Backbone:
């Protein structure tokens, strides 16, 4: 019974955080001008996005259980997509803003922010987050995970990069292709349900809570409030980031690939650290799964809403994209070495991320 109270406390904390952040953001949106206010809005909207997305996902999971949906299906769909919901909403909000202004301009390009967030999230999760997890607890790597998920993660990043390199944009057809590949991946996982059932239940961390009393009104409130606040906060986040980039004369991609990428990767860090403490090696599966969702589903949906165009092409093609591809390849190389992640390898990945940030700062002329 004591274990069952943890998720309830977590949902309560997420709901309280949503309400507190909303109360703090509303008055700030009434102010116009001032870089300090905009930076505060960026931070608060990021916290609200993460907490409201968590509230929405938890409510949907309880609803699914109530209607008899298996824990495996919940883990493969709601959990895997739910941890990437911030990136998805940031991307869609960016596309809507681009559509509203009639396309990117030389000064303003929300698409850069969205694309920077996708690549930045992949880089953060596979270097900084994975490195921190391994430094705390060395992990074993399952060969079947690498053969299925690890390879697809790398190919997803390569495919997205190839599509962008063709003409520095991602159109609706290409976005649809990425989404279809992700759907095929999910269907394939469901067909292999017997082999991965135990690991997915451990990853969800809630196999001890099978029977729950469901309050339909609270669940409905959580779904509506969580999704509404997530969409609203994502819109504020994109607007704030674009305004900050314009005011400081730095590429939107810089904010997307650093500040926002770290913020939207916090759910993956929390899940991975929890998994690592169980010493089951599922932490790597958490990060690999999210890094399949982001370059396929997240950016695919973004392109479906409005074609993604690279504005600040120099910083993307010379630094952000190469760093993401190389670090992803390096992490897979470490995983294939005796199928074990050692502390020194985690340290190398963390070091690689800080080198990337340093080069990015130098490239944008902030120092």
Residues:
């Amino acid at each position: 019974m004591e274990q069952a109270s943890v998720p309830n406390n977590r949902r309560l904390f997420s709901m309280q955080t949503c309400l507190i952040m909303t109360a703090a953001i509303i008055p700030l949106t009434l102010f116009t001008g001032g870089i300090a206010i905009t930076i505060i809005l960026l931070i608060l909207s990021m916290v609200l996005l993460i907490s409201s997305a968590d509230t929405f996902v938890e409510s949907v999971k309880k609803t699914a259980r109530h209607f008899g949906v298996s824990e495996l299906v919940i883990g493969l769909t709601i959990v895997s997509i739910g941890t990437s919901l911030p990136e998805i909403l940031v991307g869609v909000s960016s596309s809507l803003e681009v559509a509203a202004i009639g396309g990117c301009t030389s000064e303003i390009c929300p698409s850069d922010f969205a694309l920077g967030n996708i690549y930045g999230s992949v880089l953060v999760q596979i270097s900084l987050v994975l490195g921190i997890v391994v430094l705390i607890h060395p992990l074993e790597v399952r060969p079947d995970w690498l053969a299925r998920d690890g390879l697809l993660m790398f190919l997803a990043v390569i495919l997205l990069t190839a599509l962008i390199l063709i003409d520095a944009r991602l159109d609706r057809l290409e976005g649809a292709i990425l989404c279809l590949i992700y759907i095929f991946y999910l269907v394939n996982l469901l067909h292999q349900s017997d082999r991965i059932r135990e690991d997915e239940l451990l990853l969800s961390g809630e196999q001890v809570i099978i029977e729950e009393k469901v309050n339909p009104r609270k669940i409905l409130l959580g779904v509506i409030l969580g999704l509404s606040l997530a969409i609203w906060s994502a819109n504020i986040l994109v607007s704030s980031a674009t305004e900050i980039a314009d005011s400081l004369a730095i590429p939107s991609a810089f904010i997307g690939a650093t500040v926002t990428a770290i913020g939207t990767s916090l759910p993956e860090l929390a899940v991975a650290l929890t998994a690592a403490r169980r010493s089951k090696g599922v932490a790597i599966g958490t990060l690999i799964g999210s890094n399949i969702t982001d370059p396929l589903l997240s950016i695919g949906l973004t392109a479906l809403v409005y074609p993604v165009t690279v504005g600040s092409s120099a910083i993307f093609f010379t630094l952000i994209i190469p760093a993401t591809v190389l670090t992803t390849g390096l992490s897979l190389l470490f995983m294939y070495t005796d199928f074990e992640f050692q502390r020194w390898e985690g340290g190398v990945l963390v070091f690689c991320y800080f080198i990337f940030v340093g080069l990015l700062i130098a490239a944008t002329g902030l120092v």
In short: Strands lie at 139-140, 169-170, 308-309, 340-341. The longest helix spans residues 216-248. The CA atoms of residues 119 and 324 lie 6 Å apart. The chain has one domain: 5-363.
